[in-house]
Design goal:
Layout lengths: L3 E7 L4 E8 L7 E6 L6 E3 L5 E5 L2 E5 L5 E6 L10 E3 L5 E4 L3 E5 L5 E6 L13 E2 L5 E4 L4 E5 L5 E6 L11 E2 L5 E4 L3 E5 L6 E6 L2
Antiparallel strand pairs: 1-2, 2-3, 4-5, 5-6, 6-7, 8-9, 9-10, 10-11, 12-13, 13-14, 14-15, 16-17, 17-18, 18-19
Length: about 200
């Protein structure tokens, strides 16, 4: 009589697979994949609260697990991985057609058109700056920076080898690092000028 051991492995955020193995020299019998419910994404806040993002709604939860507020994102559903939180608690949300600022009290502060053409990737994620403003990729080569109050600070075209490929990285001194597949550059938070660059080839 054959005896089987079941081994479970995750195949992704919403898929679970069960593989049946025979013992000794017995061959693998089958692989069965079934859907499992994935939890909505969440994000920690500077005030020890946290956010729960579910579809087109964002909910703020207290440290004790109590709901504080819930808001609906206007327009297309937010890109769950395309969020950034500033030190003052402002949440920057991006959809396929705009970037918006949500205050820590759950009220929308401002929105700016920022349509994304083609495939969304990590380079489209907004990045909160050290002074609580935001910088984001606005085109194939263009980056824009806004104050936390919504005023446009600057917009520049950058030339990074391999093209932008990741979310902008913010250094402690405020410098903005834009990385491509074959190089990177540092942009000044004051005016968007290039501070330095490096190429891997």
């Amino acid at each position: 009589m054959k005896r089987w051991a079941i081994i479970f492995a995750l195949c992704g955020p919403s898929i679970g697979c069960a593989r049946s193995h025979g013992r000794s020299n017995e061959s693998v019998a089958e692989v069965r994949c079934t859907a499992v419910q994935a939890l909505p994404p969440s994000m920690a806040l500077p005030d020890s609260h946290w956010l729960r993002i579910d579809g087109d709604t964002i909910q703020k939860i207290s440290p004790l697990g109590e709901p504080v507020w819930v808001v609906r994102v206007p327009g297309p559903e937010p890109l769950a991985s395309v969020l950034s939180v500033a030190d003052n608690g402002t949440l920057y949300v991006r959809t396929r057609d705009q970037v918006m600022a949500l205050g820590s009290d759950g009220k929308w502060l401002w929105r700016q058109p920022a349509p994304i053409e083609g495939v969304v990737d990590q380079s489209h994620q907004p990045a909160a700056m050290t002074d609580s403003g935001v910088v984001f990729r606005a085109g194939p080569r263009q980056y824009r920076a806004y104050a936390h109050t919504g005023e446009l600070r600057w917009k520049v075209d950058v030339d990074v080898k391999g093209g932008p490929s990741e979310q902008p990285m913010i250094l402690r001194n405020g410098s903005i690092i834009v990385r491509g597949s074959q190089g990177l550059i540092a942009i000044s938070p004051r005016d968007g000028s290039v501070e330095w660059g490096h190429s891997s080839g």
